## 1
Amino acid sequence: MLSLYGKDVTSRFLLGTAQYPSPQILSDAAKAGEVDILTVSLRRESAGGQQSGQKFWSLIQDLGVHVLPNTAGCHSARDAILTAKMARDLFKTNWIKLEVIGNSDTLQPDPFQLVEAAAELCADGFEVFPYMTDDLVLAERLLEAGCQVLMPWCAPIGSAAGPLNPTALRTLRGYFPGIPLIVDAGLGRPSHATTVMELGYDAVLLNTAVAKAGDPVSMARAFRNAIEAGREGYLAGMLEPRDFATPSTPLIGQAVFS
Amino acid sequence: MKVLVNGAGIGGLCAAYEFASRGALVTLKECNSSIGGNPSWQAGGMLAPWCEGESAEDCVVGLGIRALDWWKTVFPDEVVNNGTLVVAAPRDVAELNRFGSQTTNFEVVDGTGISDLEPHLSGRFRKGLFFSKEAHIDPRRAMQLLHEKLLELGVDIQLGVEGQQDAPGFDFIVNSVGMKQKDVRLRGVRGEMLIVRTPDVSLSRPVRLLHPRIPLYIVPRADHHFMIGATMIESDAELRPTVRAVVELLNASFTLHPAFAEAEIVEMNSGVRPAYADNVPRVERSGRLITINGFYRHGYLTAPTLAQQAADMAFEAARTGELTS
């Protein structure tokens, strides 16, 4: 079972809660995907007092899953730290998905501000899930800052592009065999999730690919199956691709290696 | 039949009209001192059932199609039957394909088609979706005209008066009071909107600009006014519009046409939409109490149909003698 900061989670499918046609569909999708962790953003919703978005929170809490608050929409370390503290008060959890946006068009994380915020939050007792690019050195800095989970993107948020740089993802996996690695952002279709799970990633986090699907509930189920397929394939040990065919039975009477 | 309608938002106004036009003696109570004090006043007024089908349940599309006919029948001179144009910047064309895959009853238009429909958008977009059967109405005029029609029908309209959820002396009490209803199933979804004025842009129909994060619509109104909307925030906080919301809406309008940069900002406003968990509005009856609520972002789109359903329920109960006052 996957363990994140000492908490066992029953699913390798983390789901975001934005952009669904309705809270009912979000709830149905989370159930169909057998999701155990939902991320929630509180920046906008909490404006006007912590009680203001209470109804939506209670709908999420009724699902009985772990809640992973995020700092979506923050553009500086200071901003993200403040939001993380508000989230801790509101959700009574030390978990925080740390997002510090460096480019508001691609929503690419700002690696410098991210490390700064991660160090301060870890020192303050937070359990930080950093949303990061797939850079190896950045990963090392975040671990030094105290993070025990890494969440590299595989493509820009909402792009649905799928893994753009499998080599970088493979490098991270190779360097940090004992650290839970979760691909966060950029997945568009179930096969993308399978691909990153086959690389040995521990889990995936996605939102738009389910929320904006024609049928979000079915899509959540499809992703659940795809994630399981990739995970099982990884554990089962896959054949390495090779440059020529290998007949499974000898070709008697033919010049095989001509 | 004596009927008390509580609430003069679009739900209550339509209900009062349906009951009164079928011969009921209607009293309408609204706690605000003017007809414009509730979220219906901030609405877009788009009668766009097929576009809304992108994210709304199928039943909402059905309610909207029926209501579109109602509006055309009751206010033939007010409904603008020019359809809806949906566009996206070339880099967001995938959004347009997604929108098209989840809706029906439109045609795909190219750059020429777009400039034929909206000459001022000429050269700005290469692909769009045109929902020709849709329409729009100015919601503030609609509310005022409904108000006038109710007076003509002899409805006793009492503004600045608290509604009575259980008043004696009425055969039916219809509650359409939005977030004031005590119902744990209801939640608030805040929306923020702007009205700008510029004579430099002219549009004949609502235009929706798709964007992965900041979808926007612009509805043309009289005298070079444009309504720009609207955010969807899971919160029932009664706040003035935030800087972020205003900046995003204005930025997106600027993308639709740069001339919006020179427009005057006439109004910035916000309202909290009442919604159930599935974002589908409901009519529910319990004895002589009828509740209409949960319009979400579909007040003008569905209120007439829900009003008809409420009146059907009441007149059917009266006809079968189920109810004795």
## 2
Amino acid sequence: MITVLVFLPLLMAAIAGLGGRLIGHTAAKALTTGGLFVSAALAWTIFTGFWLNGAAGYTVPVLDWIESGGLVVNWALKVDTLTAVMLVVVTSVSALVHLYSWGYMAEDPSQSRFFAYLSLFTFAMLMLVTADNLVQMFFGWEGVGLASYLLIGFWYTKPSANAAAIKAFVVNRVGDFGFSLGIFATFLVFGTVSIDAILAAVPQHAGQTFSFLGGQVDVMTCLCLLLFVGACGKSAQLGLHTWLPDAMEGPTPVSALIHAATMVTAGVFMVCRLSPMFEASDTAQAVVCVLGACTALFAATVGMVQNDIKRVIAYSTCSQLGYMFFAAGAGAYGAAMFHLFTHAFFKALLFLGAGSVIHAMHHEQDMRFYGGLRRHIPITFWMMTIGTLALTGFFFTAGYYSKDAILEAAFASGTSHGMFAFAVGAVVAALTSFYSWRLVFLTFFGQPRWAGSEHISHAAHHGDHHGDHHGHHGHDDPTAGYHPHESPVSMLIPLFVLGVGALLAGFVWHEQFVGAEGGAAFWRGSLAFDAHLMHAMHEVPAWVVHTPAVAFFLGLGLAWHVFLNRPSIPKWWQREVPGLYQFLLRKWYFDELYNAIFVRPALWFGRQFWTRGDQQTIDRFGPNGAADVVVAGAATLRRFQSGYVYSYALVMLVGLAAAAAWMMR
Amino acid sequence: MPVLSLMILLPVVAALVVATLPGGEQERAGRARVVALATTLVEFAAGIWLWLNFDSASAAFQFAEQLDLFAPYFGWSLGIDGIALMLIMLSVFLMPLCVLASWEAVRKRVPEYMAAFLLMESLMIGTFAARDIFLFYLFFEGGLIPMFLIIGIWGGARRIYASYKFFLYTLLGSVLMLVAMLWMVGVAGSSDIGVLSRQDFPAEAQFWLFLAFFASFAVKMPMWPVHTWLPDAHVEAPTAGSVILAGVLLKLGGYGFVRFSLPMFPDASAQLIWLVFALSMVAVVYTSLVALVQHDMKKLIAYSSVAHMAFVTGGLFALNTQGIEGAMVMMLSHGLVSGALFLCVGVIYDRLHTREIGRYGGLADTMPKYALVLLFFTMASVGLPATSGFVAEFLVLLGLYQTSTWATFVLTTGIILGAGYMLWLYARVAYGKAAGADTGAMPDLSAREIAILAPIILATLWMGIYPKSFQQPMKPAIAAVVARLDGRELATVPTDMTLSPALPALAAPANAAESHH
């Protein structure tokens, strides 16, 4: 069953990708979407087995892969509760996104390619979550990176899309650099890359030290931090986050699937999968916790001032991933996975809702050109509102359960980094509420403002079927005679399904994911589940329990006041504190900084090495120099023939050897 | 049946036939192509036969032939172990593809061109099959001559400069190697490679012998800073010349290290790892950055080859099983992938007659099949898992990590830089908009071109998903090399290379470590 579940999307991707021209768009779309729904059905079957029937974990071997000396790596599919949760998230969101794309991508000439990439991505993600060893996890890790690269750059004639695609891949490679070193070091210490064997041997190695880059360091801390670098890359944590907002160049269904619900959560999944290792190092846990909290804060501040609807949601994703990490760092892996689970529903809902708005607004993504859309696209409006309620943690929605669990766990952990994370998390909850409701108010409330949009005026001029019953419209008509339409039903069904998930997922499953009794029985050792912490969570002071609700209303009220009640306030801020505004708008100047210290120096060094190094040093004193000597020598020292070449070689070698001998003294 | 001798002699005979064909210019060219293709296909079939009949459990030289000529100092002595087998397979696999790639691209003096290629094939097989050290030397150096001619006669505008540079560099080291060989045979009293591999030369002598061989192999590899001949040679060589250069000739250096340097001078190898690591570390960072700023496609891929070859040297001198096996897989993988990348460049060069990256763009629209193939090989080059490049890089770095964390740290940056220059190249060629009307008008891959590239795709995937098929025959031979190296004292250098290569050397537990503070 698991084999079919994982490989069906690959098969369909191959058919749609290689044979798309042959079988036509409709067949390609039907095959990939059908395949994904089959996989999703299987995933729910497996998940139900773990949820209700207490099924035991198992591993299905597929094929030998790499063997060398003591290293044995196999292709194998590992299934336990943790995997089952991820299977459900990945296949469900993927199936819905496939369906949604029927409507969203209806006019694209390369639809088959798009659907093939989506299915390919799903396959890679499934390989990642079913990995029974670190190398296969790395395979999935790079595979989703490839699919992400292809999908971000899907509209490859746009230079910005190409740049974003390369950036995503290369920044992720920086993470993979850490991940790779982590795997090598893990193999050195444990002598295996099998996850089960590693986790079983963790206690033996806790507290040991080994040599790394010339220094003696704690083994578990070093391993965890190296692996965590990989997690930071994939999950866009502070420092390696710069690719995620740019990734919004990809089509919106991609953002929903890859850059909200699944791929970016791979880092959280990895930390949870290897949670016994992180448990063995307090330092590593503290780093994970603090960095997660900082990311949550950073992304939330930037999200408050962005104008592009997708970028706001992207920063929101980045921020929520920070929540998941600080939960993991506080030792509440169940809570981290719970937030991952609920976040998948409401964030995919928000992205697909945003896609519906963008679809209605002819690819205009700037919220300054929205306004008053709730009357035009009411279904989208209501679905987005549900998503926002869940994201901001309104009572009894999915986010309410998971975010509360994270904040309470951070507080209850009693560590200093846990307290720090709690304080930051509470502030971020208010910021989240503020920027989320800002998005809703700017998009759906107030007056229409799209007359100035290039996309809209383009659409209105080329398709006068929208404005014909209006007759003449003057320059002061804020709608420019354009009336947005609700999306087709194939796009609305996924919104409904995700909306149900966003409302109910927390209520239904909170006992399993973070319950003190139910949790241990549910996870059954697939992650380091701390029942004491979960007990402590329920005994935190009342003010801690009420903090998220206060944050919610604070943010909502402030957003209402600033964007609906007194719309002049944002302008006033922009005018009066331009430094702060620019700092946030330019995303804390990370891109500028990285350009200045990495990209430009790399190119400069490349040019220097090439011209000064290869051409003006090596070639000049090497072959060209030898040629000059030979030519000159031939004139004057004809009897030595070409002896110079040999003596040159000898001199060079003797020099090298002398240098070597000297250095080895 | 002396299969190896036949495999060496058949292309020579075919080359003579091709060169002396009767008829007019056109007829001769047509016949030469057919004869060359048929010969290379027969060679490939013979290679398959070798592989199928090869005993993968043995480290011994198989299909051995012995004809004493000047015993004990020279003999026609052939035989292959797993390492030689796989490199011969690589050569005979690429050869027919090279002939096909030259089918239409080469129009000048076709019979002579095909003869040069056939001669090259013979010399390559001879190099890998030679069991006598002087016979090896003859084939090894002889291989230069056809390549020199291919670049010098059928090359681009600066072909004379490039071929001169190529010849000068490669000749440079080999003279020293010959002197070293003479001394070694004098001491050991035998020119048999197997005997020499078991000979324990004094540590002092090993040091100088190692350096003499190093001079030759480092140039062939090429290692930094003796790499500058490679970009020029690639740029000027015709497409098929580049494929053989990258696919097979570049493997001679690595083959030399694993066949001679490691087993014959194990103490010197262990003592000089710092030299190899330092050059490899510089090479990866330096040439990757240089590749980043290239405007010429072939130069970019040539510089990336230097970086990949640094992984080979890094892996070999990790001196453990994973490192050496990884280095061998890297050689095979690089032969396939960079050979295919040069073929890909050749495809569009044949259409537009420029290698300038800026003249392309938008090929994903106009040549979708080509864009897909190029994407595949780009990803294989950056070592995406499930392609051969990943298995190679992973094993090399995993092995190297056990010997030196610093070297691994620096070499691993190659995966970031490699992604940078390859994806940027791909974006400029395949994405965006066509640079000109002529770029947009290029036709997509022809059936012949697909027939050339498809086998390499399959081989790359096979090696990436089930590398066992390729690793298995090499394992006993590599185990023999590792056994020679086992227990040699490693150089202590200012980094932390104090871990012994075979054991996960963990320092004392925490309480012991605390007492130091």
## 3
Amino acid sequence: MDFISILSIFVMACFVGYYVVWSVTPALHTPLMAVTNAISSVIVVGALIAGAAGGLGQAAGVSKWLGLGAVVLASVNIFGGFAVTARMLAMYKKKERPARDGGGV
Amino acid sequence: MEGATPAWALLAYLASGVLFILALRGLSSPATSRSGNRFGMIGMAIAVVTTLVTHFPSVAVPGTTTSDGVTTTLFVPDFVTAIEILVAIAIGGGIGWLTARRIKMTDMPQLVAAFHSLVGLAAVLVGWAAYLNPQAFGISAADGLIEPQSRIEMGLGIAIGAITFSGSVIAFLKLAGKMSGAPIMLPGRHVINIATVAAILGLVAYFTQDEGLWVIGLLTALAFIIGFLLIIPIGGADMPVVVSMLNSYSGWAAAAMGFTLHNTAMIITGALVGSSGAILSYIMCKAMNRSFISVIAGGFGAAADISGGAAKEQRPWKRGSAEDAAFLLKEAENVIIIPGYGMAVAQAQHVLREMGDQLRKAGVNVKYAIHPVAGRMPGHMNVLLAEANVPYDEVFELEDINGEFAQADVAFIIGANDVVNPAAKTDKSSPIYGMPVFDVEKAKTVMFIKRSMGGVGYAGVDNDVFYMDQTMMLLADAKKMVEDINKALAH
């Protein structure tokens, strides 16, 4: 992919992010931070590439271990981020009586 | 990256990007949020599996030597590395999962800060890995050097990642109480900060000319330092902005790495997270009527000790007991509860919900009112109330409930202070002037739970609400006081 295509995706995604995040209810801002944290660990893709890469020479060896280190860090975030988000979201409950709609916020 | 990424893999990364968008979309209402979170997990699983398949570990071995003495390089599958990767995922995943299970909800702000620091550090490691082994990432040019454009992306990614890391570590230490929440002011810090940022940008530009180790090393070191310098002067009350800002940075770091790797999932995610954090920072600043620049410049709340000291004139105020409070609450028709950071510190959310339940049984209409900056991160109070089983449709935002205080019999303030200070509306000289606040003074009775009369809010300003005729000061630990009110209500 050339730079302009990538830039186009990036700019469009910024706009999508802008509108999607404004629609998030303020009551869920903490879960929002937790889940954005989990998904930003998609950086694990780069870590996996580095960890899996073969190559000759000392630099490639160091690169591999840096990659494996990054895999550990990103995995903490992926599992921790999604699990803590799920835990928080499970707590948000409506009143038990026939509830009026509107989300309460 | 041997050869181009196959088309199916590109589509898979696109799919995980879309699933991440749906994950955030789900958060528009608690009802859809749980399925949204599952979309996020599926998206992540797709990204990880796709990468594992397209980049299965391989090891380079010297191949055949041709007659003119050139040795070819062969790549063979490397199962040892594959196992190492799975172990790395298992270690990290186990730590993350256990932490997520065990963390107390009141500790959520520091957990989020800690997680941000990990994203930042991971970005730095990936950037360095790409620098050391550009071939693996498909970013080396024909001459064996790294493509200049990739160097810019890599340099920015490492710099943003390093800032995210060291900034989040400081935010974590402050939020966890392992470091004073008070701003630490260095002399000439603005000059130092601007010079450091300029040096980092200069080094990123120079990196395109010289890909020497010292350039990227110095760049990384300076970025670690600036992250540290940026956060130490910011006080505890401004932490919601800082946490949101670091959230944003972790997104931009992922996006920069996505540019380096030409990976759609990383770019979409980075853009989403970056905008998300930026919007949250904006909402937090607006809720404090402060500009982003003034928050980042820091120092807010540093004067708390001076203005809150003994020089204050003594004004009469009324102290109430738990029994008095219980009596008035029971007689009330409408009660609005305003929780703040003090409730989180005292872990009073569960007893507070019990109080709400008892009052509701007595026929009292109970509502909770939450200020956008209450607590230490966006939505902090909502999570704590949800943890205590308060239904989310009883919890209201500032603008939705502020008109109701005139009809409220009791405004019950627990652990909040600045967000109910009328000086924000009347006193132009007040540091919190212009901040939107709850109109508690319109309620018939105001109950103010506070540890003692000595302390003032984070802004370090006195609060006229303490001294109003209809105000009853309930001086005690928040949890203890609400427990006592519950006992009195039960009689």
